[in-house]
Amino acid sequence: MFSKRKGFTLVEIMIVVAIIALLAAIAIPNLLRSRLNAAEANAKATLKTLSTAYESYAAAEGDYNETTANLADNTVYNPPYLNDNYADGNLHQGYVFSCTPSAAGYTCTATPTGGPYASTGKSFSICTGGILKESSSATTTAPTCP
Questions:
Q1: Are 122 and 83 in contact (CB under 8 A)?
Q2: I want to staple 110 with a disulfide (CB 3.0 to 4.6 A). Which of 24, 26, 90, 124 is the partner?
Q3: Is the pLDDT of residue 118 over 90?
Q4: Which of 62, 80, 66, 63 is CA-nearest to residue 108?
Q5: Quick one: which of 65, 42, 34, 55 has its CA closest to 129?
Q6: Rounded to an integer, what distance in angstroms lies between the CA atom of residue 52 and that of residue 128?
Q7: By the 8 A CB rule, do 64 and 104 touch?
Q8: How far apart are the first and last CA of the chain?
Q9: Cα–Cα distance for residue pair 33/117, rounded to 1 Å
Q10: Model's pTM, two decimal places?
Q11: Please, are residues 91 and 114 in contact by the beta-carbon 8 Å criterion?
């Protein structure tokens, strides 16, 4: 007589594994691209935050010649112009930020440094007046300001 079989055959399991592999092959590149886009958007937003802090400082003090460490220090300015010293040389979501202030203006840059962003992420810079520049391709050299 016929016995009732329990479980799956090897062919059925292989078909399920093949379907899962196909879905993963489609989904993983999209996930990595969306993470890169999020890191780039965060870099742009951070540069705009730095620009706003420098512009606010210049409106109050008359020049731009102040470090980001002081702009983020609540013992120097209360309340501080920044919540965090982004230009401290540390990695912030795959990017390192640096700012060069002077009495006449400032230039802040964001360069991709960490993980997969170093080889695929764009570099950004923002200049006096909030002019944001972006590199045309993946590079660790920030574009120059006008």
A1: no
A2: 124
A3: no
A4: 66
A5: 55
A6: 10
A7: yes
A8: 87
A9: 10
A10: 0.80
A11: yes
Q: Where are the domains of the chain?
A: 10-134
Residues 6 or more apart in contact with residue 6 via CB below 8 angstroms = none
H runs (alpha helix) in 62-121: 68-71, 117-120
On the 0-12 / 13-18 / 19+ scale of CB atoms within 10 A, 33 is exposed
DSSP state of 124: E
d(CA 139, CA 18) in angstroms, rounded, equals 37
Positive or negative CA dihedral for 75, 78, 82, 83? Answer: positive
Alpha helix stretches (DSSP H) within the chain: 10-61, 68-71, 117-120
**What percentage of residues in the chain have a pLDDT greater than 70?**
96
Contact criterion met (CB below 8 Å) for 112 and 122:
yes
Yes or no: say if 54 and 106 are a contact pair by the CB < 8 Å rule: yes
Mean pLDDT (whole number) for 13-32: 91
Residue 107 structure tokens: 């230039």
Contact 101, 65 (CB under 8 A): yes
